[in-house]
Task: inverse folding
């Protein structure tokens, strides 16, 4: 195992149980060879590969961090979200529930997660796939989501405005 810097005990105690990659690798290795080939595991996904992975996915299963939720919403892809329980201010659960409320995702709590609940969630989306896709695409066109598409332009506009007008002397 690679040498990693030692974390202070309070931090190490909070994250020591996040060994998803190792657990999933072990489980995949117990599958028959033909099924093992269907599961591609990666400890980290390079940014350059994310778009390809999303494009090849019919249903996305994963955590519900801010970037992931916005990316899934922009693409209108159906998703099964499993919010990270220790996320600050319960942000992951709140974000996942936004897509669930619009009919574009299923949310599973990690403490209730089993192979059966995951399979049921995926089966629910598969059985109603067109509806999940339609609702996801409708949400992807909403103002709540489309404003993310032009975020770079708005940032540049703000910088240019500040450069052209200087700082407001009344502040």
Result:
């Amino acid at each position: 195992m690679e040498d990693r810097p030692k974390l202070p005990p309070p931090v190490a105690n909070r994250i020591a149980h996040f060994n998803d990659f190792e657990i999933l690798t072990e489980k995949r290795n117990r599958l028959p060879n033909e099924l093992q080939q269907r599961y591609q595991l990666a400890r980290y996904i390079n940014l350059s590969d994310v778009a390809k992975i999303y494009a090849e996915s019919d249903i996305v299963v994963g955590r519900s961090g801010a970037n992931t939720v916005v990316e899934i919403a922009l693409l209108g892809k159906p998703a099964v979200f499993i919010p990270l329980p220790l996320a600050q201010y319960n942000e992951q659960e709140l974000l996942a529930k936004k897509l669930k409320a619009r009919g574009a995702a299923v949310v599973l709590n990690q403490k209730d997660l089993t192979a059966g609940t995951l399979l049921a969630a995926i089966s629910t989306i598969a059985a109603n796939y067109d509806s999940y896709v339609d609702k996801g695409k409708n949400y992807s066109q909403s103002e709540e989501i489309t404003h993310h598409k032009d975020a770079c332009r708005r940032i540049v506009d703000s910088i240019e405005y500040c450069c052209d007008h200087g700082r407001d002397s009344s502040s």
In short: The chain has ten helices and three strands.
